[in-house]
Write a structure and sequence with these properties.
Distance between the termini: 59 Å
Strand content: 15-25%
Helix content: 25-40%
Largest sheet: 6 strands, mixed
CATH class of the largest domain: Alpha Beta
CATH architecture of the largest domain: 3-Layer(aba) Sandwich
Shape: elongated
Order of helices and strands: EHEHEHEHHHHEHEEHHEHEEHEHEEHE
CATH superfamily of the largest domain: P-loop containing nucleotide triphosphate hydrolases
Oligomer: single chain
């Protein structure tokens, strides 16, 4: 199947369990399907008391669907629940149509959205791992790509060949991703030396990218569609006068995110698990907000990020007629990324979480140490700056303990607890 389902005519099967609740998020399932560019030509709802081991749903409902398909033009059948490989095959035989489940649908959306080399590799890896569990003569095209020379040993069956080719490609992608991961780790360490990292997380389509643009005065892609952002984007932002942090926009979460995607995007999600602060963006205009909040918190726990300090930003307050049952505190803030409501309070909250009780201190550096001076302006609030003599620059700064410790490790920087000289010459660095 192609990565994109664009122009494909679909028939949806919504299977609700007796427990209901989470499984019954039909609007989300429809939105997921439409996000691929596919059309929905039919939909049926199944209330299942028990799940059939072979076909998930009962024979009577399958016959009903089969009858529907006689009058409905549908290229593909999509189930809102996970299907085992055998269930998928059995349903395809009976209904005489390709059948995929919700996980496969999400994988297709990710494939469509991936733009960077890293994103494409991560999606492909997820797809291949998903395919490896249900491989049935699906990779014969690889043999043709390789010319068929030396691919098949004596007596080797086609399925075995396909699996060998599949595993070979998986290992190749994993190697490339490990190299990219090492590169990202190096970049992350370099960023973290200078500034704290704030990671934006949230359910897909909660308004993360809009908030990211508002905070950073940038213009990254903002789209009213699921998973518009796959690869993390980084920007420095001012959280107070001359105080900066790095903010990162990450992939949107969704309930029951396929295991293959979590594993494939683990290196990307490390940006969240290594953050100094998490900013959880929620769509306060969504009636499923609390359920989505729980889904995000579940994933944060899975990636080991549940112990990181967090701020909950209840976005789209401009669309909410009544006040939320939340209080504007430094942990829970009502905002509108679109019109700027609550943004100042949000910045104050970030500042209080990231830089508690800054220290006033004097430092001296050589007048020619422009790189060190630039770093000082990045990691601290410079209150005063003056020239002691033709070779020495003195700066009075506000800085947190962690960055001060890093600064003191530089032998070219001298720190003092109090002012030791009368400095009248304002330094103008140009």
């Amino acid at each position: 199947m192609n990565n994109s389902l664009s122009k494909i005519k679909t028939y949806l099967v919504v299977v609700n369990s007796p427990k209901g609740s989470i499984e019954n998020d039909n609007e989300e399932f429809i939105s997921l399907t439409l996000s691929t560019g596919a059309s929905i030509n039919g939909i049926t709802y199944v209330n299942a008391r028990v799940f059939n081991r072979n076909t998930l749903i009962g024979k009577g409902k399958i016959e009903s669907i089969k009858k529907d398909l006689e009058n409905i033009d549908a290229d593909l059948i999509i189930f809102n629940r996970g299907l085992s490989a055998s269930q998928e095959r059995n349903l395809e035989k009976i209904l005489n149509r390709p059948v995929i489940d919700r996980s496969r649908l999400i994988l297709n959306i990710f494939a469509k959205r991936a733009k960077t080399n890293s994103g494409k590799l991560q999606v492909e890896l997820a797809q291949l791992k998903h395919l490896s569990t249900r491989l049935v003569r699906g990779w014969t095209h690889l043999e043709r790509q390789k010319g068929g020379i030396g691919l098949r040993g004596p007596g080797e069956k086609q399925l075995e060949t396909d699996r060998r080719l599949l595993n070979k490609r998986i290992k190749s992608i994993e190697l490339k991703l490990r190299k990219l991961r090492t590169q990202r780790l190096t970049n992350r360490k370099s960023r973290n030396k200078l500034m704290k990292n704030v990671a934006l997380v949230g359910y897909t389509n909660a308004g993360k990218s809009t908030l990211f643009n508002t905070l950073s005065n940038s213009n990254t892609l903002v789209a009213d569609k699921m998973f518009a952002t796959l690869d993390p984007v980084f920007r420095p932002i001012n959280i107070s006068k001359k105080r900066k942090v790095v903010i990162s926009d990450t992939v949107g979460f969704i309930r029951e995110l396929p295991k293959e995607l979590i594993e494939a995007f683990l290196s990307t999600l490390e940006e969240v698990s290594s953050a100094d602060l998490i900013l959880h963006v929620l769509d306060s205009n969504d009636r499923s907000m609390l359920r989505h909040k729980q889904s995000v918190e579940k994933i944060l726990k899975e990636i080991g990020a549940d112990q990181i300090p967090i701020i909950h930003a209840y976005n789209k307050a401009d669309l909410v007629k009544a006040n939320l049952n939340t209080i504007n505190t430094f942990d829970h803030i009502q905002i509108s990324a679109k019109n700027g409501t609550g943004i100042n309070l949000l910045l104050e909250s970030i500042s209080s979480k990231i830089n508690p009780q800054p220290i006033d201190i004097l430092i001296r550096i050589g007048v020619n140490e422009s790189k060190i001076r630039s770093d000082i302006y990045t990691i601290s609030n410079v209150l005063e700056e003056c020239l002691i003599d033709e070779n020495t620059l003195e700066l009075k700064i506000q800085i947190d303990n962690e960055n001060l410790s890093r600064l003191k490790k530089n032998k070219k920087v001298k720190a003092f607890e109090s002012k030791i000289s009368d400095c009248e010459n304002e330094y103008n660095f140009s």
